[in-house]
Amino acid sequence: MRSLLFLILMLMNPIACYAYPSYSSHWAHRSVIYFAPSNDEHVKQFLLEALINDCELSERDIVTLVITADGFTAPSWVKEEFNLRRMFKIYRIAPSEHTAVLIGKDGIEKLRWGKKTDWRYVLKTVDLSPARQQEKSSNTSPCSI
């Protein structure tokens, strides 16, 4: 009976059913999903900056994903796990746009921006969240060495 009720509720709310990641209501990480039309210079810049900020992103449990309208993904396994067209629809992204979305550990969108990423602002936004405040009180930063 509980399974049937759960199934009915999930079918009534398709966004929850297909959102990334779809297996849990509370996730072990935050996500920054960068949507783009193709693997262009903006995508390359995003990936380079994510690599440069890797320690700060890892410290905050932030996973970065790239999804392009023409099928490129980073990491490459994303295209095997998710329906890319559906991801554009779920997050209301036009396939011709460059849009990044920060998703919190609670699965809720926290921030949205365009082609260029202000990593300091993204990290500050995460740092101001109650969940991050609690994390900071119990851990020391490996990035401040």
Structure notes:
Helix content is 43%, strand content 18%. It has helices at residues 2-12, 14-18, 41-52, 54-59, 78-81, 84-90, 119-127, 130-138, and strands spanning 30-36, 62-68, 73-74, 99-103, 109-113. Strands 3-2-1-4-5 form a five-stranded mixed beta sheet, with helices on both faces. The protein is globular. Keywords: Signal. This is DUF4174 domain-containing protein. It comes from Vibrio japonicus.
Percentage of residues in DSSP E strands? 15-25%
C-alpha-based Rg, rounded: 16 Å
What's the total helix number? 8
Give, in spatial order, the strands making up the sheet with the most strands. Answer: 3-2-1-4-5
Globally, the shape reads globular
**Mean of residue pLDDT?**
84
User: First CA to last CA: what distance?
Assistant: 54 Å
**What class do helices, strands and sheet pairing give?**
alpha+beta
Largest β sheet strand count, sense and barrel closure: 5 strands, mixed
**Unreliable parts:** 3-20
Number of DSSP strands? Answer: 5
Element-level helix/strand string: HHEHHEEHHEEHH
Helix content: 40-55%
